[in-house]
Amino acid sequence: MANEKPRTAIVIGAGAGGIAISARLAKAGLKVTVLEKNDFTGGRCSIFRSKAGFRFDQGPSLLLLPNLFRETFADFGTTLEAEGVELLQCFPNYDIWFSDGAVFRSSTDTAAMKREIEKWEGPDGFQRYLNWLAEAHGHYEISLQHVLHRNFTNHAQLADPTFVAPTIALHPLESIWSRTTRYFWSDRLRRVFTFATMYMGMSPYDAPSTYSLLQYTELAEGIWYPKGGFQTILAAIERIGRRLGVQYRLNTPVAKVLTGGPDGKTATGVLLESGEKLEADLVIVNADLVYAYNNLFPQESENKSVGPTITPYANDLSKREASCSSISFYWSFSKKIPELGTHNIFLADEYKESFDAIFKRHTLPSDPSFYINVPSRVDPTAAPPDKDAVICLIPVGHLSATHPASSWPSLVASAKKAVLATVEKRTGLKNLESLIMEETINSPPEWQAKFNLDRGAILGLSHSFFNVLSFRPRTRAKGVRNAYFVGASTHPGTGVPIVLAGAKITAEQILGDKKMEVPWVPLREWKGDVQAKQGNEKRGGGRLDLVKRPLWTDDWNLFLWSVIGLLGVVVVFLAGPAAWGNGGFVGDW
């Protein structure tokens, strides 16, 4: 087997990562079987329908970083559009509601943003906004090239000058809150431009400032919604995989990853909970990574070959900082609520305290911030005529010793009461609860039970400095050959577009380990959208469209005038005695 190319692969879990990597491996020529514990695919990125005909996205409800999605489809020789995916732009991006009745409307419209920002911080504020946007653009471009299109298999890579030099500009050691205060001088706008760290399940007071790239992509590329629900994108990738021969088995929970080989340290297949054994040359795990190391891989008490490596590592992972969880309400409203746009953010008055409650005390804040999505506002197919589908997500702490599963029913009731009261007070709406026809709830215990999420943390492990890059659990399983990971808690991290990028990274690692050809443009050749399209004069109208950096850029001007200034000083000092008489210029001093 050591010298043979693998022929079969098993993927555990049909989440975004599992669906994407199964199609990639099938394209590379492997026979792939995906095993999913639930009766649906997509994992947290799935949809469900209520009895009354309302459609809800169970997890993600806004699409960011659209080029990463397009890259995935391009690698399969197709496009989103060709696969029947229609992206609808959400405009404006958000309505951000404050306790004093003010509403900040965020959008891709620069003129509108100018008015919004100058309303609170004057003309100088808009200039600072543009400076912030320029820095966030740098965070975005550097991250795409040096993080999202690169694997990290050892700590030595962090000392590589080709990595260190550009990533200093990511400001990874400064929090996004601290960095934002340089550009926005009112607490109102500081909150507007930092709340998005919740997409990573982190507090803005702890998240590296690198993550300003999230709000940059919203402002520069827009927020999008796939018509028919977010899961339609994964359904399209699933169809591509099926065309390539991928087989899906739903309602098929895995009990263990099997190991064997001469030293007992090679993955050989899986044992299903039903007792059935399936053999494979490769095992790729898209289940929650912490859960998998603690429950799917052999432990020390049952396997003396790999257990002594797995068990201590699994224990360490269980102690690592995790992301937040959520209480998510899915409401079927009997009428439209025009006061609410597609995306609405209600920010807590006690902003920092709300994050401390989530990340330090692992509970529901007394004054919670929350997000309300009305998918039927942008996509009418989400609800019956003249009605609205409404999703409310309240970030909360994950399961802990102080807040176990038994404590959450009362917290859910408190959260619902707080949300409805806040929405009514800030929007002027009345008697919202009477309009709710149906209600479905996901809270930390449900997230844990449905998707085997460790501690019910909806975004996996935290993205703090020592939980990213080579510090994050590796894509190649520890202590077990021929086993790999894809998903939120391995590199590069959480979020559907990031996980799709991770599927490409892990797939190429597998093909590289097995000396197999990569059947798409490989990571080492990725040069970014503009450079990849440019390359020569054949792009667009020929030479008119050739992108070429001019000599007289600001950097060159600065360098040139610095040299001229220095030469001027030297000339003055050398010519001083002749030009200035007795003692010259120096002597006069």
TrEMBL record:
The UniProt record lists the keyword Oxidoreductase: yes
CC cofactor: NAD(+)
Residue ranges of every copy of the Amine oxidase domain listed in the record: 17-289
Pfam families per the UniProt record, alphabetical: Amino_oxidase (PF01593)
UniProt keyword terms in alphabetical order: Carotenoid biosynthesis, Membrane, Oxidoreductase, Transmembrane, Transmembrane helix
Molecular function terms from GO: oxidoreductase activity
Keyword Magnesium found: no
SUPFAM superfamilies on file: FAD/NAD(P)-binding domain
InterPro entries given in the database record: Amino_oxidase, Carotenoid/retinoid_OxRdtase, FAD/NAD-bd_sf, Phytoene_DH_bac_CS
Transmembrane segments: 558-580
Listed pathway(s): Carotenoid biosynthesis
Gene3D superfamilies: FAD/NAD(P)-binding domain
UniProt similarity note: Belongs to the carotenoid/retinoid oxidoreductase family.
Protein name, entry field: Phytoene desaturase
